[in-house]
Amino acid sequence: MLKKLSLIVALIFTTNISAQKLEKLVLSGPVASVSHPLVHMVQTGALNDIAKKVEFVLWKNPDELRALTLKGRADFIAVPSNVGANLYNKGVDIKLLNISVWGILGMITRDKTLKTLADFKGKEIAMPFRADMPDILFEEIVKAQGMNPKKDFKLKYMSSPFDAMQSLILRQVDHALLAEPAISIALRKTGSFPLKLIAPDLYRSTDLQVEWGKTFKVEAKVPQAGMAVLGDIGNNKQIVQRFNEEYKKSLKWYKNNPKKAGELIVKYIPMLDAVGVADSIKYVQLDAIKAKDAKKDLEFFFGMLKKNNPKTIGGKLPDDGFYYR
Question: What residues does each domain of the chain span?
Fold first, then answer.
């Protein structure tokens, strides 16, 4: 009798949970590594217990990102940290959940003698996303090193990292600042990785996170991107908790299974290359740290941006309401 009663209670509980499911949950992000755990979450049905349908929506540039947030077309979205702060300071209902990308940017070049950002002085550099990451990080570092980003470098702005990568592959430029996995894909497409014995076309050069650490006397990591929650979903602790749990699990799987991860990612983001994605994973600093625990690093980063270009974070450091608790 007791066993039968337990089964009835379990059935009622399951039915109630099912009835409370969301009709749809939208996860969104760019082609970069920060989004890749989202793809794994969708593929594995990780959030099927809280939503009847879970989908991944790709944003290709900062304008598309802003449109998704302003029009409420996503529930959880991967954002550059400064963009999240900017949107929050402009009144968007957004809360930062975590920082998961601490190092993703680097220079790639045809000249293996170029090792530091100062070595690129006077060179033409393909640069994605004017006034957004990675342009912002580059600008802050070279300013602090006593250089003028506009006068000392010939920056050729591109609409996306992949436009910059294509220009490099097609030999329209010799140097580019890219985010992984674009660096690894470019090296694969030109046969430069693994390094050829005779004259590779392209070389990995300056790691921007290392330059940041040396320049500002801090760790060689930058809180560049993470996950945020938008709108009323942020008020539902259970849903946010489930998302955080599954994102962390999928990030761990992604880091530990590069070959399978590459094969999976290209099914959802076909512009990428599976082998290039697999190659890139060991070059990216990935660690999902809760936003409130990353606040010190974020405020240092935001403080540097505020000093040189307040518009990049919406004019001021975001208050405590920006950090999900």
Answer: 2-103+224-322, 105-216
Q: Between helices 135-144 and 295-308, what is the axis angle to 10°?
A: 70
Closest CA to 283 of 99, 104, 110, 116: 104
- Does residue 18 carry a pLDDT above 50? no
CA distance 289 to 68: 24
Residue 248 tokens, joined: 């962390």
Query: What does R_g of the chain's alpha carbons equal in angstroms?
Result: 21
Q: At residue 58, what are phi and psi to the nearest 5 degrees?
A: -85, 130
Neighbours of 185 (CB within 10 A): 25
Percent of the chain with pLDDT over 70: 92
- On the 0-12 / 13-18 / 19+ scale of CB atoms within 10 A, 151 is exposed
Q: How far is residue 148's CA from residue 112's CA, in Å, rounded to a whole number?
A: 24
Tokens of 243: 């998302």
pTM confidence score: 0.89
Residues 137, 305: Cα–Cα separation, whole Å: 9
The CATH superfamily of 2-103+224-322 is Periplasmic binding protein-like II (3.40.190.10)
Fold of 105-216: D-Maltodextrin-Binding Protein; domain 2 (3.40.190)
E strand spans, 92-231: 94-96, 98-103, 105-109, 124-128, 154-158, 175-179, 203-207, 225-230
Q: Helix, strand, or coil here: 321?
A: helix
Encode pLDDT of 201-219 as tens digits: 899 999 999 999 999 999 9
